[in-house]
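User: For my dataset I need records formatted as: sequence, then structure tokens, nothing else. Please produce one.
Assistant:
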Amino acid sequence: MNQMYKSGILSILILLVLGCSYPKTGIHQLKMNRSAENEGELFYQAYYLRNDTCFQRICEQLNQIVVSNNEFYMNTFIDIYTCGKTREIDWGFSLNDYMPRYDGVELAVCIEGKEIYLNRKLLHISELQKNVDRLLFHPDSSLWRFSNRERKIDFFGKAEYPIMPIAMFVSGEGKQGLSVDEWKFFFDCMNEIMMACDNRMNEISLEKWDVDYESLSIEKKEAIWSVAGYNLNIFFNSCNPPPPDIYTL
């Protein structure tokens, strides 16, 4: 871990491959009302408690994880909870041993202090959601062949669906982790990205079944996750530049 901080920079790489979260479920309450059992649950709680009075304590725990590891990679997963006849859908973080590699292009969100760059263009946080939506779900024809792959999905059939990841770099110069404000800004930016995906999930539900996402059966929710569900990957490492083959605004 000392090697990480010789550069004076903490970078967090996030690869987002689409998605949505609707945590109004019993499984969500279960994960929020107990002490975090692992790194993934701590990040999950931090995301939802970023405006809570206990967030500072959580940030201290997050920084302990950062400084105690040379590098590590986390990803989100679809969390299906079954209890008797009850089945619920949620999402979560899990710790992994490696970072996946993707073919084609990816979007790069770089955070430096309170500044955000999306593919090297300076944006205000209020602009992040609409730009992610445009590039992720409505790419122009020149990007379509890189950002979509043909797949067969229940309820939707065989068609091309988005696969483009988003890489998000967050730096905290000369510090053993991030400050509370930096963690808050990081999770706020993550929320803007996820909201773009939440909205797309709901749009798909309304277009296909004329009901909002929350009203769908668990099977249809799983299908929409396959069409536009996110796979958020976080990689903690020393500072790295944005990937060279990124799409420009």
